[in-house]
Specification:
The chain is α+β, with helices and mostly antiparallel strands and 139 residues long. The protein has one domain. 25% of the residues lie in helices and 19% in strands. The chain contains four helices and five strands; from the N terminus they run ββαββαβαα. A hairpin with a 2-residue loop joins β3 and β4. It is globular and about 40 Å long. The two termini are 19 Å apart.
Length: 139
Amino acid sequence: MNNIYQDENIWLTYGQYRSISDNKIGCCRPIKDTSIYREQSWCTSHLKTFKYGLWKHLNINDFIFDGYYVDSPAWDHVILFPLLEMATTKHIKCIETEILYDYNNLNDICEYKKNGSHQVDMANFAKYKMKRYKPLEKL
């Protein structure tokens, strides 16, 4: 990661994962257009990193669902949609050529096993109801 972030134009990365249960490679692939990413299938999974400069542009009030701040089940969708929209493809690096994360989907406390319907609700909130963010010119 350190080598990748030596390029000042990179603000956010995501990479490829592998499921432990079946050794299957994940869904990650490069994004072609962040302005329509919410309408496409999810492809920005584990491992995700981003610069603090992006984070500080998030508005905490955008993360309220049914009167409460969004909790953990789909945090990656909730946080990544705005970050991807602000960074645009000019500042995003997909690391798809190596496995960055072995996902333990055999674990009984995986979010999708423990809170599957709530996770879907949060992902749908992020995808369809959250405010869209404008691209940033600089951090």
